[in-house]
User: Which sequence fits this backbone?
């Protein structure tokens, strides 16, 4: 089962186009990171496959985003 290490649950970040990429770190690679603008994770707006234990994403749009790390062992 993947375990998210960063960002921590409840983490926030303000929108800034010049900011560094958002870094997602977790154990249990390979994994898929799901992104949604709804806390129920429905609908999933996009997903990304992470073959290592870190994934960096730079282009979040303004608003509130939720993420979930999943692999074949669970969420």
Assistant:
């Amino acid at each position: 089962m993947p375990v998210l290490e960063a960002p921590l649950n409840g983490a926030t970040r303000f929108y800034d186009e010049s900011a560094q990429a958002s870094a997602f770190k977790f154990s249990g690679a390979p994994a898929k990171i799901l992104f949604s603008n709804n806390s129920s994770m429905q609908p999933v707006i996009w997903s990304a496959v992470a073959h290592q234990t870190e994934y960096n994403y730079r282009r979040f749009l303004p608003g509130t985003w939720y993420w979930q790390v999943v692999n074949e062992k669970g969420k």
Summary: The mean pLDDT is 80.
